């Protein structure tokens, strides 16, 4: 089966390649924002059947790629995915995420690839600030965007819905709640804390963990369970439908910090840094994954402890590798 992954060099893309490659049943193609040889490791490039540089905002480029590889499945991950960047550059975010999705759907439609199944990756940010009584959120929850990224993802979700219903494309919306795992940038909270701990352990920082709002409760999955959910949606999802990809449980960030600090090899003090408190902070967020489980049979398999341990170990390795590079 031929698979095309847009945004393959991103955090989720790497994990999706690992998961699909391990099954030996997929021929994997990808697109990269920039030069493949600069954005992908040699090991990943060797696994791929083809890879193209792509700015997804360019309509003819994505059409040429899809025409060449004629994928059975498309995982659309390419996006401007960072919320603070969306506040700084709202139009750039809207353009990449909306225009990019439109270009992809138009390409599939104009090439008459009516059997190609597309996973359109959205974010739980679309639900925005919600009432406690609405938790856990189902796919029927109203959209209430609090940032330009969420607006772009609502439009992306609605485009998938519309192209499925108006044109018969087999496109499903995967609404991902928080996820983390090895390799995520430290712009995100879990690897940020883990990296601080790894740097402290290896003597590069004083024994102080700078944190934001630890009371916020979030619904986290390990990215390796997320990519399995995307595959399950690709194979078993119903065209035009949206699926929450989430654990179904909310845990406080404070709980994550406690577990990470228990795993640390040194004593570390917590300090609240006002600069890390985000505006529009939502006290509690949890999704309902019943629809995803019932339609696809997907179940998460990685515990929260395992997820945190693997992120911390990955950060430890990144700090050691950085140190080796600097001393070579
Ligand atoms: O920003 P970069 O240089 O890391 O490139 C990102 C790429 N990308 C683009 N690709 C094609 N044309 C563009 N105009 C464009 N702008 C950005 O998409 C990156 O390699 C990839 C997205 O990966 P990440 O930012 O690491 O996101 P992640 O965590 O893998 O999330 C995957 C999907 C995204 O649609 C999120 O919005 C959603 O999951 O939550």
Radius of gyration: 20 Å
* Order of H and E elements: EHEHHEHEHHEHEEHEEEHEEHEHH
Q: Could you tell me how far the N terminus lies from the C terminus, measured between alpha carbons in angstroms?
A: 44 Å
Percentage of residues in helical conformation: 40-55%
Bound molecules: ligand A2R
Q: What are the segments in which pLDDT stays under 50 over at least 5 consecutive residues?
A: none
Number of domains: 2
Strand-residue fraction? Answer: 15-25%
- The best one-word shape is globular
User: What is CATH's topology name of the largest domain?
Assistant: Rossmann fold
Report mean pLDDT, rounded to a whole number: 96
Number of strands: 13
Strand order of the largest sheet: 3-2-1-4-5-6-11
The CATH superfamily of the largest domain appears as NAD(P)-binding Rossmann-like Domain
The CATH C-level class name of the largest domain: Alpha Beta
Structural class: alpha/beta
What is the CATH architecture assignment of the largest domain?
A: 3-Layer(aba) Sandwich
**Oligomer kind:** single chain
Largest sheet: 7 strands, parallel
Count of alpha and pi helical runs: 12
